[in-house]
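Hey, resending since the last one bounced:
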Amino acid sequence: MSRRIREIAEGQHYRKIGPAGGVWEVAALHTDASGAVHAKLFRIDEPETFRTFAIGALSDTRNFQFVKD
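The structure tokens again:
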């Protein structure tokens, strides 16, 4: 699995790899009860569309491509 060195932070943009991709912005980071960190993102072209992804999924270049801070 390909991993980024970049630390994930609020305000960063990521392009989802795949046919229904789009560009997503990190809105918030949170840690669940088991200690796993997740990122809540919203889609730039549909700001009312939110998704939550594990940091590992967001860091995997097969799933997401970093766009900008």
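The chain has one domain: 13-68.

Sorry for the duplicate.
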